[in-house]
Write a structure and sequence with these properties.
Residues 79-89 have a biased composition (Pro residues). 36% of the residues lie in helices and 22% in strands. The chain is of the alpha/beta class and 255 residues long. A hairpin with a 4-residue loop joins strand 3 (96-104) and strand 4. It is globular, with a radius of gyration of 31 Å.
């Protein structure tokens, strides 16, 4: 069987001339499409900015948060979550001792220090966890039962000394007041001569920890700690941020 191949004189369906024309058209279309997308993105961005700046907020933040403003600039918080007292007596049948120590009386800041009972029988010093409670910068306290129990269990389970910091709240004391209190607490820990701290804390093994708004405070305190002389504050080994509360673009909250 013989197979004969013939050369066709018919012009190919997709010649080089067609290819150049198609390529030029594709480039033109791509530029036009990119310009169109850019226009849409800019228009959408301007629309969002206009909406965020021109739409008024008719809600009363005090009412929404159930806060009662007082004439002297303070607020009354009708909702009072349960609080727990410290337990400093070593004769008590408890796994963790706790006591409150004043940091700055003029600011009403203080620390609740938790000491695991096992530390009383050991000569080696323990890590220190400096904890900042949550509450949206507005609510709760280091004495709130939810945080008291958390720090109690953490001191017992981790076998570490825990210092839970009572910082000033907004709106009476707006940021950066809480950040300033956090830094002052670190300086206070470095210089305080309380026996629970001096006898049981390893100042070279300190961690900052916080939940929600407290995570935000711990983060900012850590930034400050990285920029100051080590002689002013304890040596910070790391941060433990539990669902830290941060604000994003256009008031979006990220946690």
């Amino acid at each position: 069987m013989m197979i004969v191949f013939k050369h066709s004189t018919m012009m190919p369906f997709f010649s080089f001339t067609h290819y150049k024309s198609f390529w030029r058209s594709s480039i033109a279309f791509a530029f036009a499409f990119a310009f169109f997308l850019t226009f849409l993105l800019i228009a959408n961005s301007l629309t969002l900015q206009t909406q965020s700046t021109t739409i008024p907020c008719n809600k009363d933040p005090y009412k929404e948060l159930n806060l009662i403003p007082n004439p002297n600039g303070t607020v009354t918080r009708p909702n009072k979550p349960p609080q727990s007292p410290p337990a400093p007596d070593p004769n008590l049948n408890t796994l963790v001792l706790s006591k409150d120590l004043s940091i700055n009386q003029s600011k009403s800041t203080w620390a609740r220090v938790y000491l695991p009972r096992v530390a009383l029988d050991h000569s080696s010093k323990l890590p220190l966890l400096v904890f900042f409670h949550g509450g949206g910068f507005i609510f709760l306290s280091a004495a709130s039962t939810i945080f008291h129990d958390f720090c109690f269990n953490m001191a017992n389970d981790v076998v570490a000394v825990v210092a839970s910091i009572e910082y000033r709240l907004a709106p009476e004391h707006r940021l950066p007041a809480a950040y300033e209190d956090a830094v002052e607490a670190l300086q206070w820990i470095k210089t305080n001569r309380d026996d629970w701290l001096t006898n049981y804390v390893d100042y070279s093994n300190v961690f900052l920890m916080g939940s929600s708004a407290g995570g935000n405070i711990a983060y900012n305190a850590g930034l400050h700690a990285a920029a100051v002389d080590e002689n002013q504050i304890p040596k910070i080994q790391g941060l433990i941020l539990v669902q830290p509360f941060f604000s994003g673009p256009a008031g979006q909250v990220r946690s």
